[in-house]
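Page 42, continued from yesterday. The earlier attempt failed because a stray header line got pasted into the input along with the sequence. Redoing it now with the clean sequence only.
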Amino acid sequence: MSDASTHSIVLPHGLAFPLDGRNRGVPFDAAWIEGLRINQSAVERRTATLPARRSVKKDAQAAWLLKAVTCIDLTTLNGDDTEGRVRRLCAKARRPIRGDLLQALGFDPDSIATGAVCVYHRFVAAAVDALRGTDIAVAAVSTGFPAGLNPHPLKLKEIEASVAAGASEIDIVVTREHILTGNWRALYDEVREFRAACGAAHVKAILATGDIRTLTNVAKASMVCMMAGADFIKTSTGKEGVNATLDVSLVMVRMIREFRERTGMRVGFKPAGGVSTAKSVLAYQVLMKEELGRPWLEPSLLRIGASSLLADIERQLEHHVTGRYSAFNRHPVA
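This time it went through. Structure tokens are written below.
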């Protein structure tokens, strides 16, 4: 997966850097993984500073929130999902912020859209149809989401079916057992096969950080998934008892930074589950800006798995425009 091609350049250490920006993966390196250690108290001290930021206010805050909207993977992953609900969600993804608010902020009503819509495989075709003519991606959760305990051949078939139906991004669930038992080679091989099944579709590897116990496990699992070719690493399914937190996010973005320093390849980050308020998303944006730099504020490298977050951002933008807060139920997601 790390072989050079006509669509790559060769870095001084011999690895191939793809010109299309994708992560092609690198050979498995057990020594690199075993050398990773995380100081939990240092992580907690660092993340405690993020929500205290007060520098993003007024017009600047509105701009950051609009940028956050473009990075949202607008999501519905419920047992009672219907095609009608998915199509309404896609309509909201096309125009996530009310036109009058965008005009008051100096934007064309059609200039802001979400990064993607994320659904189960059953609704991929409906979402593709509803988003036809836009640049909004359709992401499908796969590989036995959320538990990831389906037989491996069925996981590969599910990926292939979603890609055939038109999904351009696949959110795969890794096998937690590989992480909990330290079987890093098995995790690498699994994700490499998932990536091969995805073909041209981008791979977002879900670590389920609330289930894998330690920050060191989070670091090692992040690095293994990137070695295997994941285009994004994602915190959670949203179904665990604990989902995205700033602590696990800091560890994951530090691994992204180390991977880029060693390979030259950029990998994206997706917090999912629990990022439900404008205040919380600003903390994640500050984290990305400070740890990885300006490119990681764009949807090509940052996605936020959310649904109710959009309603709160719209509510905050209305307050910015009018000086008044409206009821949350006046800003439905779909």
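Notes: Residues 246-263 form the longest helix (18 residues).
Reminder to self: strip header lines before submitting.
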